[in-house]
Description:
With 98 residues, the chain is α/β, with parallel strands linked by helices. It is 42% helix and 17% strand.
Amino acid sequence: xxxxxxxxxxxxxxxxxxxxxxxxxxxxxxxxxxxxxxxxxxxxxxxxxxxxxxxxxxxxxxxxxxxxxxxxxxxxxxxxxxxxxxxxxxxxxxxxxx
Length: 98
């Protein structure tokens, strides 16, 4: 991940990969249509505009979370929302880079 990924809160590739390898839940915050057109295997689709309303369900998973989207911008916003609710979360940036 480059300069902009770090600026937007994107985590290091190593940290994100370790989290996924250790059982983190990958949440793709793109629209359902974007998700349908391609996604990270095993990821859950919760669009950014629904993240706040899904916080209880995400907390109930009792696992760290990696959020992703197309470029890292929406996942940066999702990361901020989830962090405010005490969820361990990392911005994975664009889903195709996971």
